[in-house]
Design a protein that fits this description.
About 35% of the residues lie in helices and about 10% in strands. The chain has helices spanning about 45-55, 65-70, 75-80, 100-110, 125-130, 140-155, 175-185, 210-215, 230-240, 260-265, 280-295, 300-315, 320-325, 330-340, and strands spanning about 25, 30, 35, 60, 65, 90-95, 115-120, 160-165, 170, 175, 190-195, 225, 245-250. Strands 4-3-13-12-11-8-7-6-5 form a nine-stranded parallel β-sheet. Strands 1-2 form a two-stranded antiparallel sheet.
Amino acid sequence: MDAAYKSELNRDVPLARPGEFAAIEIGSLSVWPPVVLAPMAGVTNWPFRAICRRFGAGLYVSEMVTARPLVEGRAKTLMLAEFGKDESPRSLQLYGVDPYYVGEAVRWLVGEGHVDHIDMNFGCPVPKVTRKGGGSAIPAKPRLLANIVRAAVGNAGNIPVTIKFRMGLDDRLLTFEDAGRVAEAEGCKAVALHARTAAQLYDGEARWEAIARLKQQVRTIPVLGNGDIWEAHDALRMMRETGCDGVVIGRGCLGRPWLFRDLADVFDGREPENPPVFGQIVEIALEHAALLSEWAGEPSAMRMFRRHSSWYTKGFRGSAKLRYRLMRVTTRRELEEVLRSADPMEPFPPEAMRVPRGKTAGRQRVSLPEGFLENRLTDDTPPVHVDAVAVSGG
């Protein structure tokens, strides 16, 4: 990769040495390179996972499915739980706040032979979820967290269960070490930490030192780090600085699925290729749109693809005007006409390597139910009317 594509942070980061890193062992799954696609609501459906998988091995987690609607057989939730024909391993993120519905959802998923891995989301910072006591609020009640995890693990059989969480609600209430202890004690096969608090949302820099603290606390299962991996060399830095066992890739791959190819290269001791030129990105985007149309139907797919159009074209010359047109396409033919109207030989702009895509800046005061933190260490009462809310993967 040309030096222009490497940030100052990574210019002198050496590639992985033979034997320096190992595969992530998650139950019976052995994941190499040690890279996991983060579940992202409205993004990591099977068409997007298929595009990412084409660029490199690893573990690719579905967008989040909520437990109660799944148990009740709601069509939209069942659709989100779909996998590609040849997708393997089949990794699904499950969200739930009530041990009963979580246990029943896991029982159904495992009994149908539907999954090879279940990840559970306890990191969602969205106000409409936390104000009802769900998402990233749940680890503040370790007994409730333990009951939910126990219900999942107890019905999972040989299928590995992992959990993902944030550092805590805010800097006054950090819960990640307690969450790690619960996961380890209740039989989870790995944990993943997004190194921000719920109050941070996606603002500022991820605090990798928290990942190092969690790794010191959790000794018997893998610890994965999540936050601010924009370039492949960031993953090497995170693992060396924190001692974590693998990395979780979220916003860094939006509009840049070839990041997984770069990650495979650096972990295997190879220098990554330069990013694709615009014409090559167009071919990737059109393949993605075709798969999305196969899954959701063309009209819905074109609406869903608008955010991806923005991410694929971000940073290129004239991309603002291009995106204006892309936001109005209604068919794959129109999409192709707009994308092919730009210079196919334009190189990927180096300054776009670390430009955040998806959710960006802004902090919040975390909304909680009245009295939520009273008796939090002993209260294991599930929150009500949260399961059916579509939420972020955290």
